[in-house]
Design brief:
34% of the residues lie in helices and 22% in strands. By secondary structure, the protein is α/β, with parallel strands linked by helices. The chain has one domain (2-217): Spore Coat Polysaccharide Biosynthesis Protein SpsA, Chain A (Alpha-Beta Complex). Helix 5 crosses helix 8.
């Protein structure tokens, strides 16, 4: 069984499209009918995220931690109890491609670090987009780490100690732990996820803050 983890904090506007894209990826014929379980971890939500998630075939877990690391850890723990062999991670403001899970599963790796792209830059001045594209490596062998596009086999995840209960950089911390144990990691751009470039961050020191910092120094 393949598991998908989505941490959510007040994402009612974007969660529907996120889950629709994941359900599409879960039915890809090259998965050969392997079950895919989707876990939505609602963390301190005060909006309609729960109602949106309830429209989909997803397990909903509610916590009150304001910690993306705790949310991912909680989702992973539930999926491991259900027998998941692979843990795919994305974010509620992101859209995965149809072959997202297929590319992760067939990568012949213990972990897959994928890339992201931004479709809409409306909230930022033009120079931020240019600066971002100058710095970003949209290619095989990149070294970007995104919780919005990260997959790990269950055994390597457990050997590395799993997601730490951090409010930020839980994805980077896990990948560094995977590197420390010698896990086989694929750094690929073949399954790029489309993500939001919004200015209002849901988590500190995340992608939104990175873009805001580019605006400040450009």
């Amino acid at each position: 069984m393949i598991g998908v983890i989505i941490p959510v904090h007040n994402e009612e506007a974007l969660l529907h499209d996120c889950l629709s894209a994941i359900e599409q990826a879960a039915t890809h014929p090259l998965l050969c009918g392997e079950p895919v379980r989707i876990v939505v971890v609602l963390d301190s939500c005060s909006d309609g995220s729960a109602a949106v998630a309830a429209r989909f075939n997803a397990t909903i877990i509610t916590i009150n931690q304001r910690s993306v690391g705790f949310a991912r850890h909680t989702g992973a723990a539930w999926l491991l109890q259900q027998g998941a062999r692979w843990l795919a991670n994305t974010d509620a403001d992101s859209l995965v491609p149809e072959d997202w899970l297929v590319e992760q599963i067939h990568a012949d790796a213990e972990a897959v670090c994928g890339t992201v792209r931004v479709a809409v830059w409306d909230e930022h001045p033009e120079h931020v987009r240019h600066r971002y594209l100058e710095l970003y490596q949209q290619c095989e062998g990149h070294r970007h780490i995104h919780g919005a596009n990260l997959g790990i086999c269950a055994r390597a995840y457990q050997r590395a100690g799993g997601f730490s209960h951090l409010v930020a950089h839980e994805d980077v911390t896990l990948v560094r732990a995977l590197e420390a144990i010698g896990a086989r990691i694929s750094w690929t751009a073949r399954n790029t996820v489309c993500t939001s470039a919004r200015k209002l961050a849901r988590a500190p020191n995340g992608f939104s803050e990175y873009l805001n910092n580019l605006a400040a120094v450009s």
